C-alpha cells in the first residue's frame, strides 16, 4: 500500500495505472499546515480551490442561528473537502480542522484537467458516491439508533476508513477530538456523550488513552453497533481484496 492516503483510497474505486498514481502523487506535493480548530472555508464563500486532507482531521459543519454547530461529515486523510466547487460555485456549509492538519489547495482548473482521465474520474465519482453513502448511514444512525450504538457505529466506521489508508492497525487509531466535537457529530449534549463513552468503555467495547482509540474486538463492536461496511465500498474491484485485515470487515464486506 502506498503511503499517500489519496492514492490508497482511490485504489478502491478503480484500477489506477502507474502514470495515474504518479499524477495523483504530484497533486499532493505542496501542503500547507493548518492548526486545529481553524476555518478552511466558510458557508457562502466562493471557493477558488479544492481542498484535500493529507494529515490530521477536518469536518464539514453547519452553524445554526443560536450558535450551535452540527458536524455533518468527518474528513480523514485522503478525503477531498469540496470536490465539486466548480459546479456549485458557492459553499452551502463550512469546512474546518478539528486537529492540526496538512491540507493541499488544488486549483479548480487542475481538477477539471483530471476529469479528462477516465480512470481517475471514475475514482472521483466513486469517492463522491461513498460520501453520499456515508451521509445516509449517519442519517440512519441519528434517526434510529440508540446513542451507545450510534457512537459504536461511528467508531467502526472510523476504523474501517483509517485502515483503508494505512492509518489504523490492530484496532488502534488516533482520534483527536473533544467530547464537544462528538456531541456536534451525534447531536447530543456533552454530558450525554460522556455517559455514552463511559458505558462503551465499561463494556470493554472501546478504550481510550488520551486521543488514542483502541477497539479490542472489532467483530464484537460491529455486532453491537449493527455495523455493515457495505456503504463504504472498500473492496477492490479488480482483485476483490477486502481493504482491512479486521475479521469483521472480511466477513461483512
Task: List the keywords.
253 residues; alpha+beta; Jelly Rolls; Arc Repressor Mutant, subunit A; 2 domains; 4-stranded antiparallel beta sheet; 3-stranded antiparallel beta sheet; 10 helices; 10 strands
Q: How many structural domains?
A: 2
What can be said about the biggest beta sheet?
4 strands, antiparallel
CATH topology of the largest domain, what is it called? Answer: Jelly Rolls
What is the helical fraction, as a range of percent? 40-55%
Number of DSSP helices? Answer: 10
As residue ranges, the low-confidence spans are: none
CATH superfamily assignment of the largest domain?
A: Jelly Rolls
- The outline comes out as globular
Q: Could you spell the SSE succession in H and E letters?
A: HHEEEEEHEEHHHEHHEEHH
- Cα end-to-end separation: 19 Å
InterPro entries: cNMP-bd_dom, cNMP-bd_dom_sf, HTH_CRP, RmlC-like_jellyroll, WH-like_DNA-bd_sf, WH_DNA-bd_sf
Keywords: DNA-binding, Transcription, Transcription regulation
Protein name: cAMP-binding domain of CRP or a regulatory subunit of cAMP-dependent protein kinases
Q: Which helices and strands occur, and which strands form pairs?
A:
Blueprint: H1 5-10, H2 18-27, E1 31-34, E2 39-41, E3 49-55, E4 58-63, E5 69-75, H3 85-88, E6 94-97, E7 101-107, H4 108-114, H5 118-144, H6 147-164, E8 172-174, H7 179-186, H8 190-202, E9 207-209, E10 212-214, H9 218-225, H10 247-252
Antiparallel strand pairs: 1-7, 2-6, 3-7, 4-5, 4-6, 8-10, 9-10
Keywords: DNA-binding, Transcription, Transcription regulation
InterPro entries: cNMP-bd_dom, cNMP-bd_dom_sf, HTH_CRP, RmlC-like_jellyroll, WH-like_DNA-bd_sf, WH_DNA-bd_sf
Protein name: cAMP-binding domain of CRP or a regulatory subunit of cAMP-dependent protein kinases
Amino acid at each position: 500500500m502506498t503511503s499517500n492516503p489519496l492514492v490508497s483510497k482511490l485504489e478502491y474505486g478503480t484500477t489506477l495505472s502507474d502514470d495515474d498514481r504518479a499524477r495523483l502523487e504530484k497533486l499532493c506535493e505542496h501542503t500547507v499546515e493548518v492548526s486545529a480548530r481553524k476555518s478552511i472555508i466558510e458557508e457562502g464563500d466562493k471557493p477558488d480551490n479544492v481542498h484535500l486532507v493529507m494529515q490530521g482531521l477536518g469536518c464539514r459543519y453547519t452553524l445554526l442561528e443560536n450558535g450551535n454547530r452540527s458536524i455533518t461529515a468527518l474528513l480523514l486523510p485522503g478525503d477531498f473537502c469540496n470536490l465539486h466547487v466548480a459546479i456549485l460555485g458557492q459553499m452551502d456549509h463550512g469546512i474546518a480542522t478539528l486537529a492540526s492538519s496538512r491540507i493541499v489547495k488544488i486549483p479548480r482548473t487542475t481538477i477539471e484537467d483530471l476529469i479528462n482521465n477516465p480512470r481517475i474520474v471514475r475514482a472521483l465519482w466513486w469517492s463522491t458516491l461513498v460520501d453520499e453513502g456515508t451521509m445516509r448511514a449517519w442519517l440512519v444512525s441519528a434517526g434510529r439508533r440508540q446513542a451507545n450504538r450510534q457512537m459504536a457505529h461511528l467508531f467502526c466506521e472510523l476504523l474501517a476508513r483509517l485502515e483503508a489508508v494505512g492509518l489504523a492497525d490492530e484496532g488502534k487509531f488516533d482520534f483527536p477530538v473533544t467530547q464537544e466535537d462528538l456531541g456536534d457529530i451525534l447531536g447530543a449534549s456533552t454530558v450525554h456523550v460522556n455517559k455514552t463513552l463511559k458505558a462503551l468503555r465499561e463494556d470493554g467495547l472501546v478504550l481510550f488513552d488520551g486521543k488514542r482509540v483502541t477497539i479490542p474486538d472489532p467483530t464484537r463492536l460491529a455486532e453491537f453497533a449493527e455495523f455493515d461496511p457495505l456503504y463504504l465500498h472498500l473492496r477492490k474491484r479488480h482483485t476483490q481484496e477486502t481493504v482491512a485485515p479486521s475479521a469483521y470487515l472480511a466477513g461483512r464486506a
